[in-house]
């Protein structure tokens, strides 16, 4: 097998593995969510979901290792490959798209940025005006729904398996403890993203009604966003 054939095979395999990992991560998160809301009396179903979740974790762990091995192999072949055919270029473009979706490669481009901060207590219950994990998750989901290609919180890339959880007075994002304010960056069509956020009765209105401080989304011509550096396995 010559160098170009090896590169084509490796690129195809990585694209398939990335697609598999994204799908498994989605199913794994849903299994974990279902397990978390089950009534404790449903022991049989609970055991089935626990077993299924373990199987999905094992599948994703194996794919994670396969991806790491193939990525290293591709780096070697890409150095040797010159004057690639159109089909190989198309395959590389597909792989780049999969890498962006999986969050494993840095990306830059136009988009929007905004800041989410705790509100002013003004004598009210402090819990009511803190920026919580669900506030951030709702904001991230709104951006992806509006077509964002990539999203980051304080420069930490958000992917399908990202964990955003309250830990006392701070919020953990991908295992990093962050305090307000939170800078939210999204790459995509700036006008579409800003319109989705600013829509009357939308996510920003809801956050402000809660008492949180939210800046007006600013259009940026070129946002640099780092790659996701954690394991692609879901964190519970």
Would you spell out the secondary-structure blueprint of this structure?
Blueprint (H helix, E strand, L loop, with lengths): L2 H35 L5 H38 L5 H17 L4 E11 L15 H13 L4 E4 L2 E3 L5 E4 L2 E4 L2 E3 L3 E6 L2 H9 L4 H7 L3 E2 L3 E8 L11
Antiparallel strand pairs: 1-7, 1-8, 1-9, 2-3, 2-7, 4-5, 5-6
Helix pairs in contact: 1-2, 1-3
CATH class category of the largest domain: Alpha Beta
Biggest sheet record? 6 strands, antiparallel
Mean pLDDT across residues: 76
- From the structure provided, what is the oligomeric state, counting identical versus distinct chains? single chain
Distance between the termini: 43 Å
Number of helices: 6
Number of strands: 9
| CATH topology (level 3) name of the largest domain | Alpha-Beta Plaits
User: What's the shape?
Assistant: globular
Total domain units: 2
Q: How many whole angstroms does the radius of gyration measure?
A: 20 Å
Structural category: alpha+beta
CATH-scheme architecture of the largest domain: 2-Layer Sandwich
Strand content: 15-25%
* Helical residue percent band: 40-55%
Uncertain segments are 28-41
CATH superfamily of the largest domain: Protein of unknown function DUF881
Q: Element order, helices and strands?
A: HHHEHEEEEEEHHEE
Coiled coil: 46-94
Pfam families: DUF881
InterPro entries: DUF881
Keywords: Coiled coil
Structure write-up:
This protein is an alpha+beta fold. It folds into 2 domains: 3-102, Methane Monooxygenase Hydroxylase, Chain G, domain 1 (Up-down Bundle); 107-225, Protein of unknown function DUF881 (Alpha-Beta Plaits), CATH 3.30.70. Helices cover 50% and strands 19% of the residues. The chain has 6 helices and 9 strands; from the N terminus they run αααβαββββββααββ. The chain has helices at residues 3-37, 43-80, 86-102, 133-145, 190-198, 203-209; strands spanning 107-117, 150-153, 156-158, 164-167, 170-173, 176-178, 182-187, 213-214, 218-225. The strands form 2 sheets. Strands 1, 2, 3, 7, 8 and 9 form a 6-stranded antiparallel β-sheet that branches. Strands 4-5-6 form a 3-stranded antiparallel β-sheet, with helices on one face. A hairpin with a 2-residue loop joins strand 2 and strand 3. Helix 1 (3-37) packs antiparallel against helix 2 and helix 1 (3-37) runs parallel beside helix 3 (86-102). It is globular, with a radius of gyration of 20 Å. The protein starts with a helix and ends in an 11-residue tail after the last strand. 27% of the residues are buried.
């Amino acid at each position: 097998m010559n160098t170009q054939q090896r590169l084509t095979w490796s690129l195809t395999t990585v694209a398939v593995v990335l697609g598999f990992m994204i799908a498994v991560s989605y199913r794994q998160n849903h299994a974990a969510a279902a397990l978390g809301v089950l009534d404790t009396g449903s022991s049989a179903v609970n055991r089935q979901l626990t077993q299924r979740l373990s199987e999905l974790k094992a599948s994703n762990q194996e794919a994670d290792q396969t991806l790491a091995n193939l990525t290293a192999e591709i780096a070697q072949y890409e150095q040797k490959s010159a004057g690639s055919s159109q089909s190989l270029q198309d395959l590389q473009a597909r792989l780049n798209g999969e890498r962006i979706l999986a969050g494993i490669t840095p990306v830059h481009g136009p988009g929007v940025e905004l800041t989410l901060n705790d509100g002013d207590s003004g004598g009210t219950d402090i819990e009511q005006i803190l920026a919580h994990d669900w506030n951030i998750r709702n904001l991230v989901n709104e951006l992806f729904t509006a077509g964002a290609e990539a999203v980051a919180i304080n420069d930490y890339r958000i992917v399908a398996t990202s964990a955003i959880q309250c830990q006392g007075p701070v919020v953990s994002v991908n295992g990093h403890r962050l305090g307000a304010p939170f800078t939210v960056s999204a790459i995509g069509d700036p006008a579409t993203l800003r319109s989705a956020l600013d829509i009357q009765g939308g996510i920003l209105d809801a956050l402000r009604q809660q008492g949180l401080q939210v800046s007006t989304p600013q259009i940026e011509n070129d946002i640099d966003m780092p790659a996701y550096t954690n394991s692609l396995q879901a964190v519970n």
